[in-house]
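#help-structures
NK: newbie question, is this the right format to request a structure? protein is Beta-galactosidase
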Amino acid sequence: MIRVSFNDGWQFRPKVNPFAELSGPTAPFQDVTLPHDAMIGQDRVAPRGEATSEGGAGAYFPGGVFEYRKTFFVPEEYRGKRVLIEFEGVYRDATVHINGDYAGQRPYGYSHFRVDADRFLRFGEDNEIRVEARAHEDSRWYTGAGIYRDTWMLTGELVRIAPDGLRVTTPDIDAERAVVEVATTVENDSMAIRTGEVVTEIRDAVGTVLASGTTQVTVMPGEPATARTRLYVSDPALWSPGSPALHTAEVTLKDEAGDIDAESVTFGIRSLRLDPRHGLRVNGETVKLRGACVHHDNGPLGAATFARAEERRVQLLKDAGFNAIRMSHHPMSKAMLDACDRVGMLVVDEAFDMWTSAKSGFDYSLHFPEWWERDIEAMIAKDFNHPSVIMYSIGNEIPEAGTAVGAVWGRRLAEKVRALDGTRYVTNAVNNMLAIMSELPALVQKARQAKGETSSEGAGINTLMADVGEAMNAISASQLVTERTAESYGVLDVAGMNYSDSRYAMDGDLFPGRIILGTETFPTRIDTYWRLVAQNDHVIGDFTWTGWDYLGEVGIGRPQYLTPEHPKPTPTADYPHLTADCGDIDITGHRRPVSYYREIVFGLRTQPYLAVQRPQHHGKAFAGMPWAWTDAVSSWTWPGYDGRPVTVEVYSDADEVELLVNGRSLGRLPVGEDHRFRADFDTVYEPGELLAIAYRGGVETGRHLLRSATGPVLLRAQADRAIITPHVGDLAYVTLALTDAGGTLHTAADREVMVEVTGDGVLQGFGSAAPSTEERFDTTVRRTYQGRALAVLRPTGIGKIHLRATAPGCEPVETVIGVE
């Protein structure tokens, strides 16, 4: 079918009561270009705040019901053809009407779906499509709302290749050749039996035909047929994270009159193997998954899914040392899958955050029993040809996993996945403590009695939950968990475990055939986890929470300090906190100190890394949740703190590190694995240079230098690319930074920056990494955070985009991005 973008020409507004508009419009529509997040700009009319229905889970944004409309012309020549409208994602509970008639719906906000439009269309005339979407107390994180992913119009003949109708597998690979099997589904909506030919070509990255074949296919009316073509590629270039070689399968459907339809898909030739001795093997080589859990929002863009935003995020995660992404806790966008294929990033794609037990008042559990199969089908159809996808997760922290009926549901989902795609593995991200939550009070009380303690059951729970990380890990190792989760793990290929490293070694003995994946872990304990991954062949990797900071679940990773008024840490921050504040990379794409620490633990960085704890908190008792890193910043610019005590963190895999302040040595401290790859130096702040030197066996192995910013503050603008394309989904990212004349970042000189965008582009989003702020992403003024802000530009045509930025006390700066 012919596929064209359907993103332009839409209008949007909050849903209004139609009876209220009998006397005239009460809320005007606004012009928008998709993808569009209806929630991110809602605070113009319904402000963010403590009392919003979404609360801290939704970053204090207001939910609501939103409606979109579009008028589009349908040519007369489309009469007698099939016309479909495809939505890659509408959040949530979407309903679609065409020319006033109901055309379709989709409750789940993360599934792509299509509506058959031709039966409702007026040919040779203008037509109207309306889409409604709802977001209200239905998630534990910021979801955004509305038509937040791409839309497409598909047109084709009555006999055609079905949408998602090409499925490529590589069942047999060796050094000499690879077997490539292309299954093509042909549909026939005519009244006659039709016979045609399916011509298939396999091409390499530069377009050279490597193999071709023709298969005859007869299609009965209303009965799709699958034509399989088995081809052989000599000396195949294999896809792997280190060498992501891609191929294209081009398929043409023909009859005696000529070509009827054509489709193409990109795929990779690679093999997967799994066993407890070798772990996960890609093309025969064992791969340990250095994983990042990520949510779907794109920071300053909200939930709007642009291809360039997804590609940039994948590339930055790869550059930071990750080789795998777990999409949490919903299916990944098509754009991100494409990026993972190109960049070389392995993917664990996840279906659901809930099954039949609700986690929020109005979440998908209300629709799960009726819709789960269709949503699994949609995920598999989307993922099937992507070599980056190695595993499907059927759920995340499903409470039912500890019950017999929950195990039945798990088997249903797992077998459905296998029936649709037997080439990947199935996991489920189980939180073992949550799986026995109903029996947790009795378990705690029994443990306290065994110790001779007599305090109340409630007190026992409070004590246990004082360190939720230790609690989850300790309970995970209990016999009760072993018994209650045995069947739920037994239906899987890989036992996904959240915060349960206490089971890694013991399950190697208890369940010799069990393969374990740390599907979600604390960033503060990566050294412990990675040692276990390295030591245990049956443990295939670790996924940290999280690789990239995100909107919502506000403040779970924020630094906290004990005071008489706040004697213990709290999981949720008050308004105006905006982000979870727990990612290795912040919402603008800047790496935080924990990212460099992780890179060292992974064995990917030999240079030491310096970070300085904020001197204003020196001496206070740190008490963050287990997702919270220290408040350290990689900066030696702390005006106002001259002569005040400060703690310097040095990360390294060497034997020892030396710290020098303005050339004066503070001595050496042991570091490396036995010291958790970290040494802390207490000193006093004095402007100048801070230098860390690492040594192994007395020989220097690397150094890291920080300089204090001095002199006037300069505003600088740096675009990520000088030239972008006008294609759907492309963007330009411009970093605005406050520096001194030598380029050192002024992390303590934050101020408001104003941007003006002219030419062939618009400002799509403007923000900083500030975890707590009342500023919006849809304005032209934004205060920097630690010296940085980020402007995101969307092209509107071929030409040039001009950005001019100003800030108090700084000379204006300009940058030009070409669009061609």
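mod (FA): yep, format's fine, and the tokens are attached above. Residues 404-420 form the longest helix (17 residues).
NK: thank you!
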